[in-house]
Amino acid sequence: MILQAADDLLGTEPAVLTGALVGYARVSTRDQRLDRQTRALEAAGCIRIFADKLSGKNTDREDLAKALDYLRPGDALIVPSLDRLARSLQDLITIVADLRRRGVGFRSLKEALDTTTGGRLVFHVFAALAEFIRELIVEGTHEGLAAARARGQRLGRPPAMTSEQVRHARDLLTRPENTVSSIARLLGVSRSTIYKYVPELATGRPAVEQSTARAELVRYPPTFTGFDGASLQR
């Protein structure tokens, strides 16, 4: 997502911004007054202002979604300060990149950031920050994986069968009356899983089947009928 944001930030210059100025304000739970923010946005020329009365940690910012949906190519989004718009630098870059892709300008009054006048440099800065965050994420992921391996932690999906289940399957397979299907049902796995975790089955199962056949001969010996009609047992 961050890499895509960087590409959007360095894309083709948006069209000349001649549309409406749309304001967005937000207050946290510690400051429930919007008056100062709305006055600043009105003084900046905003014809419409959207406002959320939520904590920045709350992801359900309904009025921000409405403001972004209201904007059209050529419009500009005005905010009192960057922290009123985004929860994090990554969030800020994503929003600004999306605005640029749509041909919408962006201005933050407190930080004096304005993409509508000489915005190319501003977008380059945002793109550099996006790449920086992406590299941090990749580096942090690699370091986390290396630390987990060093601790002996197993990575990836959990095994389909535990070592205890594998031992149990091997014990059951020594009994000729048990089939792979019945053992799989008993352990709650598939036949292919049994074959995967007990690879000797690929070569050793015929011997088990032969043992089963021999056991069947012992239990049920074949009978022959003699010439006089008497049954003979071998």
Essential attributes:
five-stranded mixed beta sheet; 2 domains; elongated; 12% strand; 51% helix; 234 residues; alpha/beta; Rossmann fold
Shape: elongated
Radius of gyration, in angstroms, nearest whole number: 35 Å
Major pleated sheet? 5 strands, mixed
Q: From the coordinates shown, what is the CATH architecture of the largest domain?
A: 3-Layer(aba) Sandwich
* Annotated CATH homologous superfamily of the largest domain: Resolvase, N-terminal catalytic domain
Order of helices and strands: HEHEHEHHEEHHHHHEE
Assembly status:
single chain
User: Span from first to last CA?
Assistant: 78 Å
The CATH topology of the largest domain is Rossmann fold
SSE class: alpha/beta
DSSP strand content: 5-15%
Measured as a percent range, the helix fraction is 40-55%
* Count of all domains: 2
Let me know the average pLDDT.
Answer: 75
How many H/I helices? 10
Strand order of the largest sheet: 2-1-3-4-5
Number of strands: 7
Query: Uncertain segments of ≥5 residues (pLDDT<50)?
Result: 205-220
Provide the CATH top-level class of the largest domain.
Alpha Beta
What does this structure look like?
The active site is at residue 28. One of its GO terms (biological process) is DNA integration. The chain has 234 residues and is of the alpha/beta class. The protein has 2 domains: 2-132, Resolvase, N-terminal catalytic domain (Rossmann fold), CATH 3.40.50.1390; 163-219, no CATH class. 51% of the residues lie in helices and 12% in strands. It has helices at residues 2-9, 35-43, 62-70, 82-85, 89-101, 119-150, 163-173, 180-187, 191-197, 201-219, and strands at residues 21-27, 48-53, 76-79, 105-108, 113-114, 223-225, 231-233. The strands form 2 sheets. Strands 2-1-3-4-5 form a 5-stranded mixed β-sheet, sandwiched between helices. A two-stranded antiparallel sheet has the order 6-7. Helix 2 (35-43) links the parallel strand 1 and strand 2 (48-53). Helix 1 runs antiparallel to helix 6 (119-150) and helix 7 (163-173) runs antiparallel to helix 8. The longest helix is centred in the middle third of the chain and has 32 residues, at 119-150. The chain is elongated. It starts with a helix and ends with a strand. Mean pLDDT is 75; it is low at 205-220.
